[in-house]
C-alpha cells in the first residue's frame, strides 16, 4: 500500500536554499551599504529618500527564501502547492535580479558578461553538500556562512557594482536550480500523484478490501456498496459498470 503522505521538509539540504539564504543576507547588507537617503551621497549611492527601493529589494529576497521553505513544508499534502510556492520563489528572485540590473545601469555600467573573468570565477564556485546531524537549524546556518565565504572576495568589495554583479550571478544560479526543482516536482506528481489522489485511492482500496462489507454481489461475489436510485436505496456491486448485480436494501 502506497504511503499516504510524502516526506516533507528537507529544504535545508537544497543548494537553492543555501544560495537563497546567502542572497537574502547579502541583499540586506547591500542595501545598508549602498542605498541611502542622504542626498549628498547620491552620486556614489542610489538615492532612496523614502526607503522604497530598500524595502522592495529586501522583501523580494526574503520572499525567495521563505517560499522555498513553505513549499517544502507543504509537499506532504499538496504537490500542487509545493510547485506553486517554488514558482513564487523564482518570481521573487527574478524581481530582485531586475532591481540589481537597474542599480548597475543607473550608475552607467552594464551587467557583467558571463564570458568575463569575474563572472567565470563566480560561476565556477561549487556548493558543498551540507552535513547535518541532529541540529539542522544550527548546522544549516553554519553551512550557509561557510559557503558565503567562497564569494567573500567579491561580496566584501567596496565597489557597489562588483557586489551587485556578484549577486546577479548568484541569483541567476539560484533561479536555474529552482527551475530544475519545479521540473522534478512535476515529474514526481505525474508519476505518483499527490495527497488527494492517494487519499482517494486509499478510500477505494479500503472499501473494496475483504471484510469491509459483509454483503456480496449475487453475480460476482464482490463487495456491494450502498447506493441511491430513483426508487430508493439499494445495494450495488462495487464492480459496476462491469457487473450490474444488485440487492434490495
Please characterize this protein's 3D structure.
The protein is mainly alpha-helical and 249 residues long. The chain folds into two domains: 11-197, de novo design (two linked rop proteins), CATH 1.20.1440; 213-248. It has eight helices and five strands. It has a three-stranded antiparallel β-sheet with strand order 3-4-5, with no helix packed on it. It has a two-stranded parallel ribbon with strand order 1-2. Helix 2 runs antiparallel to helix 3 (79-106) and helix 3 packs antiparallel against helix 7 (160-192). The longest helix has 33 residues, at 160-192. The radius of gyration is 27 Å and the shape is elongated. The model is unreliable at 39-43 (pLDDT under 50).
Features of this protein?
249 residues; mainly alpha; de novo design (two linked rop proteins); 2 domains; two-stranded parallel ribbon; 8 helices; 5 strands; 57% helix; elongated
Amino acid at each position: 500500500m502506497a504511503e499516504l503522505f510524502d516526506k516533507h521538509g528537507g529544504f535545508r539540504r537544497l543548494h537553492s536554499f543555501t544560495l537563497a539564504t546567502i542572497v537574502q543576507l547579502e541583499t540586506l547588507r547591500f542595501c545598508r551599504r549602498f542605498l541611502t537617503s542622504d542626498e549628498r551621497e547620491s552620486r556614489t549611492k542610489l538615492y532612496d529618500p523614502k526607503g522604497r527601493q530598500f524595502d522592495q529589494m529586501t522583501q523580494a529576497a526574503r520572499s525567495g527564501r521563505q517560499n522555498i521553505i513553505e513549499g517544502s513544508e507543504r509537499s506532504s499534502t499538496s504537490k500542487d502547492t509545493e510547485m506553486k510556492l517554488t514558482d513564487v520563489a523564482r518570481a521573487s528572485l527574478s524581481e530582485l535580479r531586475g532591481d540589481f540590473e537597474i542599480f548597475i545601469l543607473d550608475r552607467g555600467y552594464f551587467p557583467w558578461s558571463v564570458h568575463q573573468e569575474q563572472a567565470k570565477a563566480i560561476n565556477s564556485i561549487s556548493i558543498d553538500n551540507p552535513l547535518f546531524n541532529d541540529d539542522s537549524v544550527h548546522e544549516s546556518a553554519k553551512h550557509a556562512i561557510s559557503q558565503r565565504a567562497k564569494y567573500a572576495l567579491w561580496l566584501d568589495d567596496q565597489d557597489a557594482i562588483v557586489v551587485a554583479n556578484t549577486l546577479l550571478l548568484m541569483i541567476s544560479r539560484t533561479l536555474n536550480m529552482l527551475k530544475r526543482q519545479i521540473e522534478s516536482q512535476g515529474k514526481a506528481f505525474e508519476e505518483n500523484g499527490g495527497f488527494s489522489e492517494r487519499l482517494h485511492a486509499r478510500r477505494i482500496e479500503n472499501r473494496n478490501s475483504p471484510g469491509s462489507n459483509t454483503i456480496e454481489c449475487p453475480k460476482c461475489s464482490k463487495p456491494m456498496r450502498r447506493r441511491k436510485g430513483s426508487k430508493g436505496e439499494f445495494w450495488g456491486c462495487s464492480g459496476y459498470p462491469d457487473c450490474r448485480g444488485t440487492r434490495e436494501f
